[in-house]
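Hi support team,

I submitted a single chain yesterday and got back a structure, but I'm not sure I'm reading the token output correctly. Could someone confirm the output below corresponds to the sequence I sent? I've pasted both exactly as they appear in my results page.

Thanks,
R.
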Amino acid sequence: MNKSADFEQYLETANEALQALLAEMDSTELTTQMTPADVACLVAKTRLAQRRLAAVLILASEAAKLHAAAGVGPPVEEVLRDGLSVGEVTARQETERARVSERFPAVRQSIVSGEAFPENVDVLARITSRMTETEITELAEADHRLAKSAGRLSSDSFRKSLERRRNKIRADHGQTAAQQASANTFASIRASNDERTFRVAAVFDPLQGTAAQIALDHEFRRLSKELGEGHGMDSEQISAQALHDLIVRGASTTPTEENNRPGVVLHVHTDGQTMATGPHKHSMLETNDRVPLTPGVLGRLACDCVIRRIETLPDGNVHVSVSSRTATPTQRAALRALYDRCPISGAPWSQMEVHHVKFVSDGGETELSNLIPISRRWHHLIHDEGWKLAMAADRTLELSRPDGTLHKSIAPPIPVLHQHALAA
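Hi R., thanks for writing in. Yes, this is the structure output for that exact sequence:
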């Protein structure tokens, strides 16, 4: 018996029935004759059908993952994009649903039965994507309770419930306040209810907040000086204009190899042992304003920074030596000639950062053979979330998940040096 043909026949029959229903509703006065109870019933049955179709896609994703792991099928994301007829964001969302169903079997069963709301599965995927393996394992102990909540609570209530569980787990594991803050970051700009103004809301982690504060302070002072006397604006209005100018100017700036994107100078203080081997009992890792940072942040910063080693001598004098970890303009030009987009995600150069494949803390040098341009999102996932990236001598990449399993291999780039002038 060909199970695949059976499944196709099931879906084809369902599609034909739905098409017949749509045709009848559209071509007759059926909709005007329906009572409120009929409409409510129709909506409920439609929602159930949507949940069951979402479950079909999750099960199909699991099959695609098995095929990819066995080397007999393409990556899951490619299968779900259905020949590029489906957007990358949608395919990624469906892939994440399948990842969640693998880690939470009771939630998976709730999905298959049509009880769990797909939106709540997306919430669980987003929150666990920023959790460590240890944290996810502990959260999975509440799998059955989560499965019930996923079919009962609204997405907002489900999110709040999950965040409470996550925060309790992190408190038990002694996570720092900085790590918890990093997991809760967000930003939005939305029209107010009267549609005459816009409201900006954001929560930044320590690194983002410090950099944004420095940039806004600089822009505030510049704007105040430019306005001069008698401008009629109070400090809050100047701050609003300064924030607007930063956002608009940043979005309209054309990046170059010499200056990948607008930036601010951020001073971070740490000790030699933390730089060399990681956190220890007396670690110091903070900004100028004593805002604590996480070790993963240090790894990302070390890819593109100037390091000043400060030594206090016995006679009370201070010795400062300087070394740079920033890729040179020539190196950036060479990388741009090799990669016109992020080799992992396809993000454009305006969203990329130069990454040291062998971490600086592990002795990685700022040499072309150790550098790869990747998107800021993947730079964060590699340094902060445990993903691993290895590069062979021919620049073939192997991207592995935090648990060590291979996510995908990426073929080396095709050089374009013969097509473009190499600007140093």
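A quick pointer for reading it: Residues 296 and 384 are 5 Å apart (CA to CA). Let us know if anything else looks off.

Best,
Support desk
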